[in-house]
């Protein structure tokens, strides 16, 4: 399991996207960094299982995602952890001095069921194809598509994306929405 | 409040545009806007500097492996194919 310099570079290069995924998934920077660290350690001790030439990032995301879910299940058994508490935790900003205000978006994201949040993050932000995301989550491609659709739809309604100006072709639709 | 909003929105989507599995579908401009916000939030996270703990971790592992390989002799480091 020697991390050759080349591999070390590849793992380091994967850290920003692993962190972004872990932070968005868990809503906690500390926990996300622990997850990323565990992912790297797990990856290094399982390197023999990685098929060279295949997508290293997808493999790492799979490990991280599985760690997140096993940890989540464990916690859930210990403490009752309904979805609402995630939203509260998410108020902790990843870094101080955030240039843009993503507060609304973050809290809307936090209200999604975790399987939908995960699917949306993989496909809509991490740049994986539906097929890759399905592989990472161990489910069918159709399931991922469905989760992504639901996630987008729910976010749109939570964020009132539609009420800005370009949803309805007619003003009656808009009036109905605002009423 | 927000769920009520969602329900109203859901009623506005004509049935014909629903996918086979009856999943809700967004119009393309709303979808684009959600996607843009998501990527903007994500990009900001991606641009954060990598915490030193990860560099340190990988360096440490490399060092400890190298010294172990030195002790046990050559060939151990590579392992069988």
Would you kindly provide a written description of the structure presented here, covering whatever features stand out?
The complex is a heterodimer of chains A (179) and B (81). Chain A has 179 residues and is an all-alpha fold. Chain A is 69% helix and 0% strand. Chain A has helices at residues 5-26, 29-45, 56-78, 83-89, 103-110, 114-125, 130-137, 141-159, 171-178. The radius of gyration of chain A is 18 Å and the shape is globular. By secondary structure, chain B is mainly α. Chains A and B meet through helix 1, helix 2, helix 5, helix 6 and helix 8 of A and helix 1, helix 2 and helix 3 of B.
Quick structural summary:
The complex is a heterodimer of chains A (179) and B (81). Chain A is an all-alpha fold and 179 residues long. Helices cover 69% and strands 0% of the residues of chain A.
Mean pLDDT reading of chain B? 70
* Gyration radius of chain A, rounded: 18 Å
Order of helices and strands of chain B: HHH
Main sheet characteristics of chain A = none
**Could you give the count of β-strands of chain B?**
0
- Taking pLDDT < 50 over at least 5 consecutive residues as the criterion, the unreliable ranges of chain A are 90-100, 164-171
- Number of helices, counting only DSSP H or I runs of 4 residues or more of chain A: 9
Q: Overall pLDDT of chain A, averaged?
A: 81
The termini of chain B sit apart by 60 Å
User: Approximately what portion of the residues of chain B adopt beta-strand conformation?
Assistant: under 5%
Q: DSSP strand (E) fraction of chain A?
A: under 5%
The helicity of chain B comes to: 55-70%
Secondary-structure-derived class of chain A: mainly alpha
Count of alpha/pi helices of chain B: 3
Structure class of chain B: mainly alpha
Radius of gyration of chain B: 26 Å
């Amino acid at each position: 399991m020697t991390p050759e310099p080349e591999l070390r570079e590849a793992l380091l290069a994967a850290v920003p996207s692993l962190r972004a995924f872990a932070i968005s998934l868990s809503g906690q920077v500390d926990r996300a960094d622990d997850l990323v660290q565990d992912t790297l350690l797990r990856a290094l001790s399982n390197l023999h299982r990685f098929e060279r030439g295949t997508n290293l990032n997808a493999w790492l995301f799979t490990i991280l995602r599985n760690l997140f879910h096993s940890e989540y299940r464990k916690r859930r058994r210990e403490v009752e952890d309904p979805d609402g508490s995630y939203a509260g935790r998410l108020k902790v900003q990843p870094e101080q001095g955030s240039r843009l205000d993503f507060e609304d978006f973050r809290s809307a994201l936090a209200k999604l069921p975790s399987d939908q949040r995960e699917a949306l993050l993989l496909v809509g932000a991490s740049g994986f194809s539906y097929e890759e995301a399905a592989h990472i989550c161990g489910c069918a491609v159709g399931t991922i598509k469905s989760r992504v659709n639901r996630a987008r739809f729910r976010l749109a309604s939570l964020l009132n994306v539609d009420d800005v100006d370009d949803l309805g072709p007619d003003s009656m639709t808009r009036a109905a929405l605002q009423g | 409040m927000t769920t009520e909003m969602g329900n109203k929105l859901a009623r506005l989507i004509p049935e014909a545009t629903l996918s086979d599995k009856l999943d809700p579908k967004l119009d393309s401009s709303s979808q684009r806007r959600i996607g843009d916000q998501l990527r903007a939030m994500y990009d900001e996270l991606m641009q954060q500097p990598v915490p030193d703990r990860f560099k340190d971790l990988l360096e440490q592992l490399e060092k400890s492996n190298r010294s172990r390989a030195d002790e046990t002799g050559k060939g151990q480091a590579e392992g069988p194919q």
